[in-house]
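Final report, closing paragraph on structural work. Over the funding period we assembled a curated collection of sequence-structure pairs, and we close with a single example.
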Amino acid sequence: MEADPGWAAYQAKTARVIPVVVLHQVEGGPPNATSWGAALKLVHDAFRRELALIRDEVARSGPGLGAQLRVNCLTVCQGLHHHHTNEDAGMFAALDTRRPDLASTLERLRREHRQIAALVARLQQVISATDADPVTVRREVERLTAEVEDHLTYEEEQLIPVLDAPTG
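Its predicted structure, as stored:
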């Protein structure tokens, strides 16, 4: 609460306890995974879990949207942006050089990244409105979730075998 006094004000207005978690960055390598493909799957599964939580929050939101729902949506949106930016500039750029046979797959994934970015921008716009309509938010969350799920599934099908293939 010391780092962000706004939460103290929010805590004062509610009877529920607001849990606080401190995260520390881990240096080097893929997330605690056995391979690059497994790391990609771990990251994707984290997005799936977060989107499922948001869908549930939206479904339970009733006539108004809570502050936590807004924060969760904006956090996931930012996470997707960083993940896709890093894929485009890092993994995809490396695969462009090493695996020209993946050109059409990588172009599709980049195109999907742009489509998801547009859906993210739309959701951010809808959820940031002071009079955000829960029905519109639910529709935008569903659209984004469906698009992201299809994208993650295709990316895993196409890239995990490549990432986990023996080198040599």
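The CA atoms of residues 64 and 131 lie 8 Å apart. Residues 67-98 form the longest helix (32 residues). We thank the funder for supporting this effort.
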